[in-house]
Amino acid sequence: MLEYAGAGDGARLMMLVHHDDAKREYAYGAESKIGTFSDALIAEAKKKGWIVISMKNDWKQIFSPAKQ
């Protein structure tokens, strides 16, 4: 899908959301059993200029605050 989007003309966005915050959500890494985000995928993203968003480092909030 990212390659398809990148092949078009005009403005486009190629990004991956890296679920790497085990404390606030889940961490899907190369060794994860519930999902994977391999080191090879990160390397390919860097090579092709895709944006990798880290939930741990780039998101201030993951879920909406609980109502009180």
Report on this structure.
With 68 residues, the chain is α+β, with helices and mostly antiparallel strands. The protein has one domain (2-58). It is 28% helix and 12% strand. The chain has a two-stranded parallel ribbon. Helix 2 (39-48) links the parallel strand 1 (15-18) and strand 2 (51-54). The N and C termini lie far apart (41 Å). The mean pLDDT is 88.
Spans of at least 5 consecutive residues whose pLDDT stays below 50 are none
Q: Helical stretch count? A: 3
Shape: globular
Order of helices and strands: HEHEH
Helix and strand content put the structural class at alpha+beta
Number of strands: 2
Oligomer: single chain
| Residues in β-strands, percent | 5-15%
Proportion of helical residues? 25-40%
CA radius of gyration: 14 Å
The biggest sheet amounts to: 2 strands, parallel
Tally of individual domains: 1
The order of strands across the largest sheet is: 1-2
- Termini separation: 41 Å
Mean pLDDT: 88
Keywords for this entry:
68 residues; alpha+beta; two-stranded parallel ribbon; 3 helices; 2 strands
